[in-house]
Design goal:
single chain, 281 residues, mainly alpha, two-stranded antiparallel ribbon, 10 helices, 7 strands, 40% helix, 9% strand
C-alpha cells in the first residue's frame, strides 16, 4: 500500500494540498489499477485450501499492538529459523496452482503473499528507518522497493506493485483491500496478527476497515475542525468513489457512533497525511 511519486511530491517535499481538488491532485500521481494479463482464471466452487498457518505463526510471534493501537513488527526478533520459514512460505504460495482455487482463496493468497513479501523485504535490509529507504526499484524516478521483483508466482517474477495494482485492485475492485495490504509503514493500516483466511475474509476485511477508520491515522480533525484523512484516501480516491464526498460516505459506513456524528456536517476534506516511518517496535 504505497505511492512513490506522491510521496516525493507531498511528503518528502513537505507540500500539502488544500481542500479544493485534493482528491484529484493526489490520485493523479498514484499507481493506477491496470490488470496484468493471465491472472484472472479461477475454479468456481473449488474447495481446495492453501495452508497459511506458517504465516499466522510468524505474525502471532512478531506482531504486537502498541499503546496507541498501532501494530508493530519485531523485525529484529526474527531468528534465522523464522526467516527461513518465511522464505519457505512465500515459495510455497508461488508454487500454488492458482487456477485450481476459487476466487476467495485466491484473494486471501494474494493479500498474505503481499504482506509476507513486504516483511521479507524489510528483513533483508533491516535496520532501516523507513521502507522507502529500501531503494531497489528500477528507474530514474522510482523509489522504495515497490517495482523491484520480489516474488515468483507460477514461474513469473512479480513486484509488490504488480500484486497490488496489477492483480488485486483491478481483479477484485474492493476498496477494503487498502485496509489489509500492509506496506511496512506506521501510516499504513495494521498488519493483522493472523493470516487472511478465505473462509472468513469478508469478516476480516470489515474488521480492518473499522479499525483504521476509527484510528487517528485514518481519520482525525485539525484544530479548526477540518477533516484530515490518511493519504490512502487521496492516492486511491477512485477506489473509494472518486470524490471527497464519496470518501466521506465511505468513512461514515465504518465510523463508530461518535465519529459518525462528527462526520455528518462535513462536506469536504481539509488535508491528508501519512507517516512513512517503519512499523518496527
Amino acid at each position: 500500500m504505497h505511492t512513490q511519486m506522491s510521496r516525493r511530491l507531498f511528503v518528502t517535499a513537505g507540500l500539502s494540498l488544500p481542500l479544493m481538488g485534493f482528491s484529484t491532485a493526489d490520485s493523479l500521481f498514484a499507481p493506477k489499477a491496470k490488470a496484468l494479463p493471465g491472472w484472472d482464471a479461477f475454479t468456481k466452487g473449488s474447495t481446495r485450501r492453501v495452508d497459511h498457518s506458517p504465516w499466522s505463526a510468524l505474525l502471532e510471534k512478531h506482531v504486537r499492538l502498541d499503546s496507541a493501537g498501532i501494530a508493530r513488527v519485531n523485525y529484529g526478533g526474527f531468528s534465522g529459523a523464522d526467516k527461513a520459514e518465511l522464505t519457505r512460505y512465500i515459495d510455497s504460495l508461488g508454487k500454488t496452482d492458482l487456477q485450481a482455487l476459487d476466487r476467495p482463496e485466491q484473494y486471501a493468497l494474494w493479500i498474505n503473499l503481499y504482506n509476507a513479501a513486504v516483511v521479507n523485504t524489510v528483513l533483508a535490509y533491516y535496520p532501516v528507518k523507513s521502507v522507502q529507504d529500501i531503494d531497489t526499484s528500477p528507474g530514474l524516478f522510482s523509489s522504495g522497493p515497490w517495482k523491484a521483483k520480489a516474488v515468483t508466482v507460477s514461474g513469473k517474477a512479480l513486484s509488490l506493485d504488480d500484486i497490488e495494482h496489477g492483480i488485486v485492485r483491478p481483479h477484485w475492485k474492493d476498496a477494503r483491500v487498502h485496509y489489509v495490504l500492509n506496506c511496512g509503514a506506521v501510516g499504513c493500516p495494521n498488519l493483522r496478527a493472523e493470516a487472511y483466511d478465505a473462509r472468513r475474509i469478508d469478516v476480516q476485511l470489515e474488521e480492518q476497515a473499522r479499525i483504521y477508520v476509527n484510528h487517528p491515522r485514518g481519520v482525525t480533525f485539525d484544530p479548526s475542525g477540518g477533516l484530515v484523512v490518511s493519504k490512502i484516501y487521496a492516492w486511491f480516491c477512485d477506489d473509494f468513489g472518486g470524490t471527497d464526498n464519496a470518501v466521506i460516505r465511505h468513512l461514515q459506513r465504518y465510523a463508530a457512533p461518535e465519529l459518525a456524528n462528527r462526520l455528518k456536517p462535513i462536506t469536504g476534506i481539509a488535508d491528508a497525511r501519512y507517516d512513512w516511518a517503519l512499523n518496527t517496535v
